[in-house]
């Protein structure tokens, strides 16, 4: 077992992470008497309540059996309840393994506690299954083969693997539905379930008033908050910060996240949560003020910044989502999908724009050469625009797409966030597929 509290205390107090903090080992570590955490993607916080096990999240379908095995090496007590902190696939998919284990041991099936919007999320995932499979493969596809230790720290067990179902068809449904608040008694202890929007609209954070513990789910992920994911539905940074403020007010002494390390100590927890909340609040305030001042999205995303000192905190590094994407999410929440450029309200096809620009420039070859020059000089943002124009103008030209793939691979390597890396690697793969088709491979 790892001493996770000692590790997190060192990392938080020193303000730097010299080793992974978001681990997916599948190993169980005791955090307090009767309380353990299995580090997976996501973690599973397991509490022996005296009235059976209460597990907060179940990890992914690919890792659920490993998690259950780790728990069973710790105790064979029955599962009383599974708590879905929210309905993301990496938190609910492992429920299949929990249900199967209960049946194999002759135990009663665990009840499943979740917010009322969890089932609506499941319905949406099934309605848009192929879309979700595709975007998750792209989201996590930019770090495969990257041995950088920081990115390996984030790499999930699913790692870009395509699956036929985004969530398993036999994922356990919620049996105990929470709206804004609910309180349950397990053994001699009360657990409160509080709803708060943040990464999702179906999130619960759980408060143990007698023990002063809080299970935060994804309100704390040991990275910059996932409040701007470019491929997913609306996130809620204002409400996320408010939930963190509500947690601080409880004065917890032990924080149990679904990703990253547990944190001990009232003052230490309050400091971490305050810094995360403040970062979100500052982003929202600055973005909305610029919107009120009549600025365009183009100006806002190139102006609004989070201080580097803040992004250097080991629990605020932009290695998954990043502030620029959160700014776009704030714009979408308050300003709609149009970015303010009139030509993009009802635009021409990308292919038509590419052909016209290539014609003016003297051919797609001219555009891609300039893209390569810009990439070599470090201006990868502009280089990618020209590489796209060239690719649209010459959709079947293997040499154009070879160069485009190289530009996007350079872009991937230059980025920190998993989401940016995944999308830019996806662009390189598009061109690589065109090259293979042209060569008959």
List keywords for this structure.
441 residues; Metallo-beta-lactamase, Chain A; 7-stranded mixed sheet; alpha/beta; Serine Threonine Protein Phosphatase 5, Tetratricopeptide repeat; 2 domains; 6-stranded mixed sheet; 17 helices
Number of helices: 17
Q: What percentage of amino acids are in beta strands? A: 5-15%
Biggest sheet strand line-up: 1-2-3-4-5-6-7
Helix content: 40-55%
- The arrangement of helices and strands along the chain is HEEEEHEHHEHHHEEEEEHEEHHHHHHHHH
Instruction: Tell me the radius of gyration.
Output: 23 Å
CATH fourth-tier homologous superfamily of the largest domain: Metallo-beta-lactamase domain
Structure description:
About 4% of the residues have low confidence. Strand 2 and strand 3 form a beta hairpin. The chain folds into 2 domains: 273 residues, Metallo-beta-lactamase domain (Metallo-beta-lactamase, Chain A, 4-Layer Sandwich); 91 residues, Serine Threonine Protein Phosphatase 5, Tetratricopeptide repeat, CATH 1.25.40. The protein is built from 17 helices and 13 strands. Helices cover 46% and strands 14% of the residues. With 441 residues, it is of the alpha/beta class. The strands form 2 sheets. A 7-stranded mixed β-sheet has the order 1-2-3-4-5-6-7.
In short:
This protein has 441 residues and is an alpha/beta fold. It has helices at 4-14, 64-72, 89-92, 95-104, 117-127, 129-139, 149-152, 237-250, 266-292, 297-301, 308-311, 323-335, 350-361, 364-377, 380-393, 398-414, 418-438; strands spanning 28-32, 35-38, 44-48, 53-56, 79-83, 111-115, 176-178, 181-186, 189-195, 204-208, 213-217, 254-257, 263-264.
